[in-house]
């Protein structure tokens, strides 16, 4: 038994990392725009350093990114040439509601995505749309405090009502929040949370998460009401935790670390707060304010499938002497001595993908969808923009084999696979352009220089062959 005949092969991007056009088409300012490249980036995305607008001292890569706003027809044509069955993209919330709290949407923004979705269908590509990929209009952050405010649920519901109705028949696969667990690790980037001095940060994060979970359930309900064909998924930044040793304390700590990430998906998939999470919040003195009907809403509107990103596995240890950690990733982890690492210090673990898939499928018994996976690397193009990226092909081939093993040998139900950054884009973690993931090279550097010309890498033709064979041919 191979992959499904209707397996959804494709690639993934996020509006804030590729679209650009931050001041075009009536779009408003969002949290993702005002995050600069450089040493201030991490304190800002962590909600520790305030930056609510642009200044002259920093470079903001998301303002233009790779200008897909003006290049999407060319880019989608290239995706079509590769044979994509699906393209995962996100909607910029502030393109539809520039302030976030308007009664009426911005028609120019709605039309942009309608045109983009129609362009996808021209090539037989099903859009897979992330409603919120870290975006939050800055007005909602400044006026309401972002997702710590209950009022955000209504603004998100407005957005969902508008897009589900407008794009009925054009989009049937939806994700509510990208990497919802990122709220714990990068709260300003993930949910617009900036912390005031003395604020109880854990309280703010989990209260905001509750509002997002309720909003996600409402989105799921509306999607199913508007079009019974709609399928709605949640989205997790995944990666199984290994204990550093077989010491029982290490094993238990790994289970706890996994649960921290599963918590949100437990709610979205099973429909209730898990007992371990309630106990953890109680121990930490976190009290989530809920309204009547919240728990019923969560219970009655669970997701149809589980989507996730996977780049690497992680390791935990209870031994204070074992403290050498990985670099480069928002999810820092103890180093695994058995694994090689990427140029950014991310541990490369194809078998970890199979382990993660089995863990998720055992836990939820719902179809899975790998919506991000890939290798960030420095590419050196020749004079024609061609990159011989065998290292990327090797990485992807090994992960695709592990993915197939999970399906064919373990019986995991998998809907599809979209590699991350199918076209080079701005890194969410570091803001760099030189950390490239794509099958398509974009001539732009970390400082914003370059022609934005697109060119095919060696991996372009390789992935085209993989898709054409439905994953049977992974050879270089």
TrEMBL record:
Task: Name the UniProt key words of this record, in alphabetical order.
Answer: Glycosidase, Hydrolase
Identify the catalytic residues: 372
Aminoacyl-tRNA synthetase as a keyword of this entry, yes or no, is: no
The cross-references to InterPro entries, in alphabetical order and at most eight, read:
GH, GH_1_N_CS, Glyco_hydro_1, Glyco_hydro_1_AS
PANTHER family linked: 6-PHOSPHO-BETA-GLUCOSIDASE, GLYCOSYL HYDROLASE
Q: Give the protein family.
A: Belongs to the glycosyl hydrolase 1 family.
Q: What is this protein called?
A: 6-phospho-beta-glucosidase
Species per Swiss-Prot/TrEMBL record: Carnobacterium antarcticum
């Amino acid at each position: 038994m191979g992959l499904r005949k209707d397996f959804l092969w494709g690639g993934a991007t996020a509006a804030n990392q590729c679209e650009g056009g931050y001041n075009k088409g009536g779009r408003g300012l969002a949290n993702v725009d005002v995050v600069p490249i450089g040493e201030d980036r991490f304190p800002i995305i962590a909600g520790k350093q305030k930056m609510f607008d642009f200044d002259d001292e920093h470079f903001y890569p998301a303002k233009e990114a790779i200008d897909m706003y003006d290049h999407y027809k060319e880019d989608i044509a290239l995706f079509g040439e590769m044979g994509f069955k699906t393209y995962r993209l996100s909607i910029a919330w502030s393109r539809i509601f520039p302030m976030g709290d308007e009664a009426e949407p911005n028609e120019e923004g709605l039309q942009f995505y309608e045109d983009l979705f129609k362009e996808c269908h021209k090539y037989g590509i099903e859009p897979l749309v992330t409603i919120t990929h870290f975006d939050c209009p800055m007005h909602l952050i400044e006026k309401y405090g972002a997702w710590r405010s209950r009022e955000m649920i209504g603004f998100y519901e407005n957005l969902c009502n508008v897009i589900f109705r407008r794009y009925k028949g054009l989009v049937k696969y939806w994700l509510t929040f990208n990497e919802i667990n990122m709220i714990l690790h990068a709260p300003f980037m993930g949910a617009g949370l900036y912390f005031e001095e003395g604020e109880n940060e854990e309280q703010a994060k989990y209260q905001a998460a509750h509002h997002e979970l309720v909003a996600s359930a409402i989105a799921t309900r509306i999607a199913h009401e508007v079009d019974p064909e709609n399928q709605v998924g949640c989205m997790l930044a995944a990666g199984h935790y290994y204990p550093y040793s077989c010491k029982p304390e290490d094993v238990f700590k790994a289970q706890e670390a996994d649960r921290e990430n599963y918590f949100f998906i437990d709610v979205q998939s099973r429909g209730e707060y898990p007992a371990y999470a309630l106990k953890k919040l109680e121990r930490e003195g976190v009290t989530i304010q809920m309204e009547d009907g919240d728990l019923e809403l969560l219970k009655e509107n669970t997701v149809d499938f589980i989507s996730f990103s996977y780049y690497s596995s992680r390791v935990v240890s209870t031994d204070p002497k074992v403290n050498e950690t990985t670099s480069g990733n928002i999810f820092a982890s103890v180093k695994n001595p058995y694994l090689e690492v990427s140029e950014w210090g991310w541990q490369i673990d194809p078998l970890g993908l199979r382990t993660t898939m089995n863990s998720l499928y055992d836990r939820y018994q719902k179809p899975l969808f790998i919506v991000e996976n890939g290798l960030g690397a420095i590419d050196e193009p020749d004079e024609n923009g061609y990159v011989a990226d065998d290292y990327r092909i090797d990485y992807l081939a090994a992960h695709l084999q592990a993915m197939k093993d999970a399906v064919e040998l373990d019986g995991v139900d998998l809907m599809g696979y979209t590699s991350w950054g199918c076209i080079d884009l701005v890194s969410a973690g570091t803001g760099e352009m030189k950390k490239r993931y794509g099958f398509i090279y974009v001539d732009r550097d970390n400082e914003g220089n370059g022609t934005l010309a697109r060119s095919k890498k060696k991996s372009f033709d390789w992935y085209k062959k993989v898709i054409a064979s439905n994953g049977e041919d992974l050879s270089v």
